[in-house]
């Protein structure tokens, strides 16, 4: 009798577990080649497969259960995927394989909320696209005045768009869309600003992988904030010789660790300013150590020569997988750190006149 009771309780528990909230994603993608479709999520910098299914004549069904709504991706093939804010609901995806950006997703309340917010941002995107076209025309015509005018207009619209997103994040502490949007706009933010938004999120929202990833990023940024000692690392220079960061900064009064890449337009635009500051203050104790996020050595060295970057240059040629990206929390370039002779960080992201003013003040 006792065993029967245990068996009954176990069966009841099993049924209860099976009756928990689940999701189903029913896909109907025209032109999709028969094969395997995956549901994936980025977790701790790695892509994890949550579920998979066979697609036949463009149709497939993915199933499972998740703790809280979060950002995932339905991957249909190489370079083909559909981002989705997944919930434990019946969700439908329809569209064409050659136009996945316009695929229709229904059944997810969070996805609907994100779509409405993106619509506001897209209005500004269209305006920026038009101005960017005018900027390129001015650049081709070598019209500096018009370039400057359009740059200001682009910056202004970008600030308006960012403000729309920040207002949403601040006013939506219970929305699972909020950490997704924050993940989009946090590039270049310092730890204090990101952490300020996270502290407003509800405990349920903080369970999402999107929010947890941001919290982890905050911890990294806090470890390399002003006043901290820069984590040491070693990478090869252009001829394959290993260069250790601490060996560089210990030989100079002040060292700018400059994260850049040959393919980064803003980086290349800032290089002339760094060269000018280098020329004026190198003899007084100012040094630069360039860390390239290139993958092509030839393009890296060509940019070094073209921009006349005569200081220490290193790279592991792994692009965004550069080892420094993880330990310094670098997710956008250009970025830089100013170190004193002991390796203490005394400045971050100093560009333009701010770099000259800071170095001038230190070495006056």
Secondary-structure topology with pairs:
Elements: H1 2-18, E1 23-30, E2 35-43, E3 46-55, E4 59-64, E5 70-77, E6 80-86, E7 90-96, E8 104-106, H2 109-140, H3 144-171, H4 177-185, H5 191-198, H6 209-223, E9 234-236, E10 242-244, H7 245-249, E11 254-260, H8 265-281, E12 286-292, H9 297-306, E13 312-314, H10 323-328, E14 335-340, E15 345-348, H11 353-362
Parallel strand pairs: 1-7, 11-12, 12-13
Antiparallel strand pairs: 1-4, 2-3, 2-5, 5-6, 7-8, 9-10, 11-14, 14-15
Helix pairs in contact: 2-3, 3-4, 5-6, 8-11
Protein architecture, described:
The protein has 364 residues and is an alpha+beta fold. It folds into three domains: 17-107, Immunoglobulin-like (Sandwich); 111-223, no CATH class; 234-362, Glutaredoxin (3-Layer(aba) Sandwich), CATH 3.40.30.10. The chain is built from eleven helices and 15 strands. The chain has helices spanning 2-18, 109-140, 144-171, 177-185, 191-198, 209-223, 245-249, 265-281, 297-306, 323-328, 353-362, and strands spanning 23-30, 35-43, 46-55, 59-64, 70-77, 80-86, 90-96, 104-106, 234-236, 242-244, 254-260, 286-292, 312-314, 335-340, 345-348. A five-stranded mixed sheet has the order 13-12-11-14-15. Strands 4-1-7-8 form a four-stranded mixed sheet. Strands 3-2-5-6 form a four-stranded antiparallel sheet. β9 (234-236) and β10 form a beta hairpin. The N and C termini lie far apart (90 Å). The model is unreliable at 1-18 (pLDDT under 50).
CATH topology of the largest domain: Glutaredoxin
User: pLDDT below 50 for ≥5 consecutive residues: which ranges?
Assistant: 1-18
The shape, in one word, is: globular
Across the major sheet, the strand order is 13-12-11-14-15
Kindly provide the radius of gyration, computed on alpha-carbon positions and rounded to a whole number of angstroms.
Answer: 25 Å
Number of E strands: 15
The count of domains is 3
Helix vs. strand class: alpha+beta
Helix content: 40-55%
The CATH superfamily of the largest domain appears as Glutaredoxin
């Amino acid at each position: 009798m006792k065993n029967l009771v245990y068996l009954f309780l176990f069966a009841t528990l099993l049924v209860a577990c099976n009756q928990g909230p689940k999701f189903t994603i029913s896909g109907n993608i025209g032109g999709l080649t028969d094969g395997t479709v995956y549901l994936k999520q980025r977790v701790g910098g790695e892509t994890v497969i949550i579920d998979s299914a066979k697609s036949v004549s463009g149709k497939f069904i993915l199933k499972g259960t998740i703790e809280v709504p979060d950002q995932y991706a339905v991957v249909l093939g190489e370079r083909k995927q559909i981002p989705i804010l997944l919930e434990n609901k019946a969700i439908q995806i329809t569209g064409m394989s050659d136009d996945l950006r316009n695929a229709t997703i229904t059944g997810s309340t969070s996805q609907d909320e994100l779509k409405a917010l993106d619509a506001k941002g897209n209005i500004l995107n269209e305006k920026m696209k038009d101005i960017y076209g005018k900027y390129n025309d001015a650049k081709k015509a070598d019209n500096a005045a018009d370039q400057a005018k359009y740059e200001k207009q682009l910056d202004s619209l970008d600030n308006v768009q960012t403000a729309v997103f920040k207002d949403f994040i601040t006013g939506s502490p219970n929305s699972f869309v909020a950490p997704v949007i924050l993940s989009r706009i946090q590039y270049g933010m310092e730890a204090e600003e990101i952490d300020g938004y996270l502290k407003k999120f509800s405990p349920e929202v903080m369970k999402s992988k999107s929010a947890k990833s941001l919290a982890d990023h905050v911890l990294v940024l806090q470890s390399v904030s002003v006043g901290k000692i820069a984590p040491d690392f070693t990478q090869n220079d252009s001829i394959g010789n290993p260069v250790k960061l601490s060996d560089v900064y210990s030989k100079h009064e002040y060292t700018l660790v400059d994260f850049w890449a040959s393919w980064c337009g803003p980086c290349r635009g800032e290089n002339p300013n760094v060269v000018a500051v280098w020329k004026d203050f190198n003899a007084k104790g100012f040094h630069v150590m360039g860390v390239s996020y290139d993958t092509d050595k030839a393009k890296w060295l060509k940019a070094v020569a073209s921009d006349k970057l005569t200081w220490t240059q290193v790279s592991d040629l792994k692009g965004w997988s550069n080892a420094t990206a993880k330990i310094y929390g670098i997710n956008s370039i250009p970025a830089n750190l100013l170190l004193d002779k002991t390796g203490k960080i005394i400045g971050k992201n100093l560009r333009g006149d701010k770099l000259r003013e800071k170095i001038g003040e230190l070495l006056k």
